[in-house]
Automatic annotation (TrEMBL):
Entry-linked PANTHER family: TRANSLATION INITIATION FACTOR 5A FAMILY MEMBER
Cell compartments where the protein resides: Cytoplasm; Plastid, Chloroplast
Family classification: Belongs to the eIF-5A family.
Matches recorded under PROSITE patterns: IF5A_HYPUSINE
Molecular function via GO: ribosome binding; RNA binding; translation elongation factor activity
Lineage: Eukaryota, Sar, Stramenopiles, Ochrophyta, Pelagophyceae
UniProt name for this protein: Eukaryotic translation initiation factor 5A
One GO CC term, this protein: chloroplast
CDD domains from the UniProt entry: S1_eIF5A (cd04468)
UniProt keyword annotations, A-Z: Chloroplast, Cytoplasm, Elongation factor, Hypusine, Plastid, Protein biosynthesis, RNA-binding
Protein source organism: Chrysophaeum taylorii
Job description of the protein: Translation factor that promotes translation elongation and termination, particularly upon ribosome stalling at specific amino acid sequence contexts. Binds between the exit (E) and peptidyl (P) site of the ribosome and promotes rescue of stalled ribosome: specifically required for efficient translation of polyproline-containing peptides as well as other motifs that stall the ribosome. Acts as ribosome quality control (RQC) cofactor by joining the RQC complex to facilitate peptidyl transfer during CAT tailing step.
UniProt keyword tRNA processing, yes or no: no
GO term, biological process aspect, one: positive regulation of translational termination
Length: 158
């Protein structure tokens, strides 16, 4: 069996989302609402009505903007859950255009992420720590094709 001409392979890697029964999603978990990755703040389940299905009422916040979203899904129906990945980077520099120069544990550098605007105090904490000469570790969250810096902490190991 040789290579098939004109056949292209798909990029290997995890899917952006995966299906899950709505009744399995709990507070603190993730769910996609209006095609946005969200963290579930509360779940309430209504009793089965005359049309059969118990309904799950989800209240969640967009993990990147903090915006509150709500959705109601029958508990036995499938819904989508985002694959959420976290990684930590050391902050090397901040460019004049507010791009962050970051390095991971293996020494790989990246300069494609901008200074975060959410949560509100995060940008100030990064700028203050960088100005003080602190070694900063930034947590980057990736979900559904988006990547954002979500938290900062001082590196106390060095």
């Amino acid at each position: 069996m040789g290579d098939i001409e004109g056949f292209e392979t798909a990029e290997a890697g995890a899917s952006e989302t995966f299906p899950m029964e709505a009744g399995q999603i709990r507070k603190g978990g993730y769910i996609c609402i209006k095609n946005r990755p969200c963290k579930v703040v509360s779940v309430s389940t209504s009793k089965t009505g005359k049309h059969g299905h118990a309904k799950c009422n989800f209240v969640a916040t967009d993990i990147f903007t903090g915006k509150k979203l709500e959705d109601i899904v029958p508990s036995t129906h499938g819904t989508t859950v985002p694959n959420v990945f976290r990684s930590e980077y050391t902050l090397l520099d901040i460019s004049d255009e507010d791009y962050l120069s970051l390095m991971d544990d293996s020494g790989e550098q990246r300069e494609d992420l901008k200074m975060p605007s959410y949560p509100d105090d995060l940008e100030k904490n990064i700028r203050d720590g960088f100005a003080n000469g602190d070694q900063l570790i930034l947590t980057v969250v990736k979900a559904m094709g988006e990547e954002h810096v979500m938290s900062v902490k001082k590196d106390t190991s060095s």
